[in-house]
């Protein structure tokens, strides 16, 4: 599992932001090659230090990763884009032992709470032993290449990794 998640650490020397009002901006340089990279989700921004963005209700502060026409909490229509903290703690998890063909198991599916209080659903990656995961452990956002298309474009995903 750890080998799969360590596959293809990305060079984030140039920002590549997708969605939430941004256009796909570019190419990142890695070992003399210029592969294009695209985030697997719109709220992942591939910058020098990758981060996640949310749409925050301008009225009540509720946060959403997906686009909303109205806030589910207060019903108002105005949102601002907010960068969330990269550090987090593990709030809930499940060790997955059965998955679709081609997915290595076991892996840890989790809900983490970032330092600014945002809940994020993600996998915990770079674990030597998934059975040693503990509630409350400190984590940090990380990115990894999860696939490459026929034209060499890398799909970049995110997860959280233990911080010592």
Keywords:
40% strand, five-stranded antiparallel β-sheet, single chain, mainly beta, 3% helix, six-stranded mixed β-sheet, 1 helix, globular, disordered N terminus, 164 residues
Architecture blueprint of SSEs:
Blueprint: H1 2-6, E1 16-17, E2 37-39, E3 44-46, E4 51-57, E5 63-64, E6 79-83, E7 87-96, E8 107-114, E9 119-124, E10 138-148, E11 154-162
Parallel strand pairs: 2-11
Antiparallel strand pairs: 1-3, 3-4, 4-5, 4-6, 7-8, 7-10, 8-9, 10-11
Please describe what this structure looks like.
This protein has one domain (2-162). The longest helix is centred in the N-terminal third of the chain and has 5 residues, at 2-6. It is 3% helix and 40% strand. It contains one helix and eleven strands; from the N terminus they run αβββββββββββ. The strands form two sheets. It has a six-stranded mixed β-sheet, with no helix packed on it. Strands 1, 3, 4, 5 and 6 form a five-stranded antiparallel β-sheet that branches. The chain has one helix at residues 2-6, and strands at residues 16-17, 37-39, 44-46, 51-57, 63-64, 79-83, 87-96, 107-114, 119-124, 138-148, 154-162. With 164 residues, the chain is mainly beta.
